[in-house]
Amino acid sequence: SQQGEEDPQALSIQEGENATMNCSYKTSINNLQWYRQNSGRGLVHLILIRSNEREKHSGRLRVTLDTSKKSSSLLITASRAADTASYFCATAFSQTGANSKLTFGKGITLSVRP
Amino acid sequence: DTEVTQTPKHLVMGMTNKKSLKCEQHMGHRAMYWYKQKAKKPPELMFVYSYEKLSINESVPSRFSPECPNSSLLNLHLHALQPEDSALYLCASSQALIALLYEQYFGPGTRLTVT
Predict the structure, then answer these.
(1) In this complex, do B104 and A45 lie within 8 Å of one another by their Cβ atoms?
(2) pLDDT band at residue A28 under the 50/70/90 scheme
(3) What is the distance between the alpha carbons of residues A63 and A81, in angstroms, rounded to a whole number?
(4) Do the beta carbons of residue B108 and residue A41 sit within 8 Å?
(5) Do A97 and B88 touch (CB under 8 A)?
(6) What is d(CA B79, CA B61) in angstroms, rounded to the nearest whole number?
(7) Average pLDDT, stretch B29-51?
């Protein structure tokens, strides 16, 4: 399985601190994506990083990708209470484009204390 | 408009009922997806449609029947479900399916309870 595995499974920090979440996967990928999910709601796409990219930024988010170690990290800087959510990494791979699919990791629960 | 809508938001059905979940997007996306998510678990892919044709069926039981009437609509027909089918059902869309170069846009989900 190429399912991503996030680490840690749960993270609790104080508002204003940085949150770092890690994801490891097992096989080759075309891209790796991070999603956020507020309790009982749909997922929101955060960042997509392609296999030939090493780092991407979006606002307070920074994602790195190390394909040699098959790992990625998501950094949220200056966290806010509104960042409290579950975060999933998801890997995408297809050699031909056919039967492409996204495989989600188990998720990380982030709690940001006001 | 970057929204995926799903109806209904909540559904309670008996094991002998027939019901349908609906999903709609107006972003011109050509790939649409159904996922099932149990509490505190990641979404599990059920079906993928690409250009209105079923591309992936993840060995889903036949009591779940997908339908893509046109490029904007995706339905999931439910019949003779089991209590273990209770879950959050998420619809998503993306610009295309090819090599999944594109992010997916998710709807808010339908919370299904089977009694």
Answers:
(1) yes
(2) confident
(3) 20
(4) yes
(5) no
(6) 10
(7) 94
Residues of A in contact with B104 (CB under 8 A): 33, 43, 45, 102
pLDDT of A2 reads 47
- Nearest CB to B43; choose among A41, A92, A104: A104
Q: Report the alpha-carbon distance of residue B77 to residue B56 in Å, rounded.
A: 17
Tens digit of pLDDT for each residue in A70-103? 999 999 999 999 999 999 999 987 766 566 788 8
Report the Cα A12 to chain-centroid distance in Å: 17
Give the DSSP per-residue string, A79-104: --GGG-EEEEEEEEE-SSSTT-EEEE
> What is the chain A residue with the closest CA to B4?
A42
Q: Which residues contact A7 (CB under 8 A, 6 or more apart)?
A: A21, A22, A23, A24, A108
CA dist A21 and B1 (Å) reads: 31
Tell if the CB–CB gap between B101 and A50 is shorter than 8 Å. yes
User: In 10 A of CB B112, how many CB atoms?
Assistant: 21
Contact state of B107 with A42 under an 8 Å Cβ cutoff: yes
Task: State the pairing for strand pair A10-14/A108-113.
Answer: parallel
Q: Which of A46, A92, A99 is nearest to B48 (CA)?
A: A99
Residue among A96, A99, A105 nearest A72 (CA): A105
CB contact under 8 A, A92 and B56: no
